[in-house]
Design a protein that fits this description.
plant defense, 22 helices, ATP-binding, 13-stranded parallel sheet, nucleotide-binding, single chain, alpha/beta
Length: 705
């Protein structure tokens, strides 16, 4: 039986993915990664600094990411944090970013992050990555809070500055990253251009010449590949590209290739790329958020019968295929989770935006990005002879505002903005009044103490509403926001005053055709009726807390078995803090489109068994069980006929995984976290049975908290 290492639950083990992430397509880096991993995991207990040094475009950051996400590194260190520094940096913001990563609290709000970082690192074996550090002062500023404890902690640095590495050095010598050899350059070029296909015979002599002109720089090879992949596969065209590269100095050649790639973009993709250029260096962008921002800003055109979300994903995939954007994280099922814009491409975008004085055309709209030089009494538009009425503003999710006092007056002058992503700001109680004039908003995500839906009910163009709040009040006014596509509120109750529910269900003019995702709702079984869900005919993703069974007159009657308790078109359902009855399970199993089911904090009445021997989830591909308090789990080989991924976390009472999962031919991964040894052993038994059936692609990952 194959040995499966037990690793901390923060690990993201390597899996088969649909999109290769940026570190998985590297060529010639395996030996370098192994050498540096040995240094990081070395026996020396003193704090050490591992420097990766090399010229721009040589792949320092990509190599560091490959090492940072290696399963042996994840298992070796108690906490890890990645910090992109660059030439211009804000020390406080960098420390806040480190603090978020080492605590897992993404809404942390502290006045003194430096002291907090030191306290949270003290006594732990930590790994801090400082990517692209350029100056001595930056090193001194950042390292003053990293405790020098004798437990094998490490700081890994990437830099172009050879002299700086000697200043930072403690025990290990700097690691000089060489350029790729000619044969490695050609291998990488083929990987990126042909995507698994073999190189045509007519290009096998000219291809290595093109690769050689890239002087062993992975970034330049990747950019050239993006251009060549869209050219006819003719030797003469490839020779033209080789000549073009050779006629420029390396840095100039890189910028020339980026400019060429940009010029080849369709007009609708250019604002999408420039928008990404305004994120901080090395920033991992959540794909789900990015697509919503693009849609709200109307960067994404309507294409045939495709949904806007599908079109925007197609746009992002196009930028990835052109090698201007890289996938940095994937979900368990292989879908893109996070992406990054490559550093030289980002520098190009910033230069382009500044040259245009932060202005650009989006369709028929003339837009200006809100930027650091703007103030609450902003008058710059007057210098262009542009009236306020004709100029729209783009509030980029990472635009810099020092505090709320500056934010609200600025917004008062920029009323045409469409996106406000303010989850990193804790807004005071005056936010509701300040937002009254922002009637063009299509995306709003806020972090506030108190939220009432009536304060945003005038935002009739709103597509996405995200709220993090301690006190949330929802009224029927929410159902009047007909353009809503996504509602993401930490938890809101659906409650009805006398007569409201009947009025809502009987009304013919309240139907939210556009709503795709909704959560987290807290409601009773009595309210989970077809008449209610029919108001959201296209709902695909639902997060729900069933807080009571309420006064259901036929709850104990067998007729409940035929009741449609959930929207019929659901593809993704998350249930939390719920008593799971046979009736609820039966209703879930009837969802013909359901592919993802996540159960968290789930309880059972009476005997703590979950018997699914007579239940079939016909199209389910992903099942996650978190704190599901069952003792015995019974399944047949027909319960999950198409399941691909099974994730079990903190199910402390569960004794074992049903061995019938070995008979599910589509199963690719079982991931077990913080469960009993017997649960892990049953997963390994399933793996053994799979191997006996010659299913060698199946994986088991067992992780400890």
């Amino acid at each position: 039986m194959e040995y499966v290492e037990r690793i901390p639950s923060s690990a993201e083990p390597p899996i088969v993915v649909s999109y290769p992430s940026v570190d998985k397509e590297l060529v010639g880096f395996d030996d370098h990664a192994r050498n540096i991993i040995k240094k990081l995991r070395g026996r020396g207990s003193d704090l050490d600094v591992i420097s990766i040094v090399g010229m721009a475009g040589i792949g320092k950051t990509a190599l560091a990411r490959k090492i940072y996400s290696d399963v042996s590194i994840i298992g070796h260190f108690d906490v890890r944090a990645w910090c992109s520094v660059g030439q211009t940096y804000n020390v406080r913001k960098l420390f806040l970013e480190i603090l978020k990563q080492i605590t897992g609290d993404w809404f942390v709000k502290v006045d003194n992050p430096y002291d907090k970082v030191r306290k949270n690192l003290f006594g732990k074996r930590y790994l801090i990555v400082l990517d692209d550090i350029c100056e001595y002062e930056a090193w001194d500023d950042l390292t003053r809070c990293f405790p020098s404890v004798e437990n094998g902690s490490r700081i890994m640095v990437t830099t172009r500055n050879v002299e700086l590495t000697q200043y930072m050095k403690k025990h290990s010598e700097p690691y000089l990253l060489p350029c790729l050899r000619d044969e490695e350059s050609w291998e990488l070029l083929q990987k990126k251009v042909f995507r698994g296909e073999s190189c045509p015979l007519e290009l096998r002599s000219v291809g290595p010449l093109v690769a050689k002109q890239c002087k062993g720089l992975p970034f330049l090879i990747i950019m050239i590949a993006g251009i060549l992949s869209r050219k006819e596969r003719e030797a003469s065209l490839w020779l033209e590209v080789a000549y073009d590269i050779g006629s420029h100095a390396l840095e100039e050649g890189s910028m020339k290739m980026i400019q060429t790639s940009y010029d080849l973009l369709p007009d609708y993709l250019k604002p999408c790329l420039l928008y990404m250029g305004l994120f901080p260096k090395g920033y991992e962008i959540r794909v789900s958020d990015l697509l919503k921002w693009w849609i709200a800003e109307e960067f994404v055109p309507n294409i045939g019968a495709l949904e806007l979300e599908e079109t925007s994903m197609s746009c992002l995939s196009d930028l990835v295929s052109r090698n201007m954007v890289a996938v940095s994280k994937t979900r368990v099922n292989g879908e893109m989770k996070c992406c990054i814009i490559l550093d030289p491409v980002r520098e190009f975008c910033l230069t382009k935006i500044k040259e245009e004085k932060f202005m650009q055309h989006v369709g028929k709209r003339l837009c200006m990005y809100i930027h650091d030089g703007m103030t609450s009494d902003f008058k710059e538009r007057e210098s262009f002879g542009i009236s306020q009425a004709s100029l729209a503003f783009i509030a980029h999710p990472k635009f810099s505002i020092s505090d709320n006092k500056n934010l609200f007056p600025l917004l008062n002058n920029l009323r045409l903005i469409r996106v406000l992503h303010l989850l990193n700001f804790y807004l005071d109680d005056s936010w509701a009044a300040a937002f009254q004039l922002l009637t063009h908003l299509r995306y709003l995500a806020i972090f506030v103490k108190v939220f009432h839906i009536k304060w945003v009910s005038h935002l009739v163009h709103l597509q996405t509403l995200g709220v993090r709040s301690s006190y949330i009040m929802i009224s029927p006014a929410i159902w009047k926001l007909e353009k809503l596509r996504h509602v993401d509120i930490n938890e809101f109750p659906i409650r009805w005053e006398d007569g409201e529910r009947v009025k809502f269900e009987e009304s013919t003019d309240i139907v939210l055709h556009n709503l795709k995702t909704l959560g987290t709702c807290s409601m009773s079984v009595a309210d989970m009726t077809p008449k209610f869900w029919n108001k959201f005919p296209n709902l695909e993703q639902l997060r729900l807390h069933i807080d009571e069974f309420g006064d259901v007159p036929y709850y104990s009657d067998s007729r409940l078995m035929t009741l449609e308790m959930f929207p019929s078109r659901l593809r993704n359902l998350s249930l939390s803090e719920t008593f799971l009855t046979d009736e609820i399970v039966s209703s879930i199993a009837k969802l013909q489109h359901l592919e993802t089911l996540k159960l968290s904090e789930i309880y059972f009445t009476g005997k703590k068994d979950w018997d699914l021997s007579d239940t079939t989830f016909e199209r389910l591909k992903f099942l996650k069980l978190h704190r599901v308090f069952m003792t015995e789990w019974i399944c047949s080989d027909e319960s999950f006929p198409l399941l691909e991924y099974l994730v079990i976390k903190s199910c402390s009472k569960l004794e074992e995984i049903p061995l019938s999962f070995a008979d599910v031919p589509t199963l690719r991964l079982i991931k077990v976290t913080d469960c009993s040894i017997s649960v892990g052993d049953s997963a390994l038994s399933i793996k053994q049975d799979m191997e006996d059936l010659c299913n060698e692609l199946f994986q088991v990952h067992i992780l400890d908290e």
